[in-house]
Specification:
Elements (H helix, E strand, L loop, with lengths): L2 H11 L8 H18 L3 E4 L2 E4 L8 H8 L10 H8 L3 H12 L16 H4 L3 H11 L3 H9 L16 H36 L2
Antiparallel strand pairs: 1-2
Amino acid sequence: MTTPQDLLIVALNVPSSRDVGQGDLSLALAGAELLDLLDAGVLTLDDDLLVPGAERTTGDRLLDEAGASLVRQPPYETIEDWLWRRGRGLAQAYVGVLEEETPTGGTRRHWLRRRSDPAATADSPSRRRANDRWAAHEPVLVGLADALGIETPSTTGSDEATNQATVTILGAVNDALTELEAVRQRRRIENEAFDNVWRAP
C-alpha cells in the first residue's frame, strides 16, 4: 500500500479541525505521491525541481501513473506546479480505489465517505496498515495529516521529518493548501459583495 492510500484512510477516520475539501485532499495526495516516488528512487529534488530518475514500477497503479507523468526533459517541473496539475481530481481517483477494495453496494452520496459510512470503517489490510503507521506517529503521514488540519497524535521532536527533501515537499503542500484557502476566501468576499449590490435599494 502507499502513503496516499494511508492518508485517505486517515482523513476518513480521524477528526479534523476543519472540513477537508476535495481540493485540499487532492493537493495533499499529490504531495504524498511525490514522497513515495522520492522514497522509491523514481525522482530526486534539485531545489524545488522534480528531477526524474530511472523509469521503474512500484506495483501500484496510481503511483505508477504519477511516475509516468513526470516531466522528463528540462526545464523540469516545480513541486508547486506538480501539486496543482497532478492534484486535479486526484481525491476522486483514490476514493474509487478504496471503494473497489471495500465495496459497499450502496450509492455514493458525497465525494468522500464519512467515518460512519461502511467504506470508511470496514476492516481491510490497507486500513490496518494505515492505522499502524498512524499509531506509530510515522513522520511523513503525520506531516501530511497536519497540513490538512487533521488532529495528529502527540509527538516528540524525534517524530518530525528531518530529511530535507521530505521537509521541502511537505512545505510545498502547506503552501499550496494556504493558497487554495486564500482563493476560496477571495471568492466568498466577491460573492458577498455581489449579493450586497443586488440587495441595495
